Every structure is written in structure tokens, then in C-alpha cells.
Amino acid sequence: MTVGGTDARxxxxxxIPSYGYGLFSNRIGFxxxxxxxxxxxxxxxxxSLDITTQLWDGVVRDLLG
Length: 65
Description:
mainly alpha; 3 helices; 48% helix
């Protein structure tokens, strides 16, 4: 498990729900992931984006029934 921070607090103050939760691919090690964030070329790999999308799709479907 890894923790991080976002600018979501600014959205929440304006009444915009913001969530910071995601899953990361096992294909990329922690050192490589940590080098991908908060730089001029900030990015995430496609596999991580896909599994996080699946996660949020499942959460929404469970909540909305």
C-alpha cells in the first residue's frame, strides 16, 4: 500500500466530490512508479489505468445496484 496526496481538497471545498484511490500494475516496480509522478512528464501506465477503471466501475455498480 502506498499513500500520496492530491489537489482534491480544493475541489472538495467547492462541493465537488473527489476520491483518491487506484490500483497499480504488478508489472512496474515501486521505484519506477515513484519516478513517474510529479514531474514534467507525469504519467501512469495503461495497465494501471485499466485496472483502476475496472475498480471504479465495480464500485459504482455496487453503489447504484
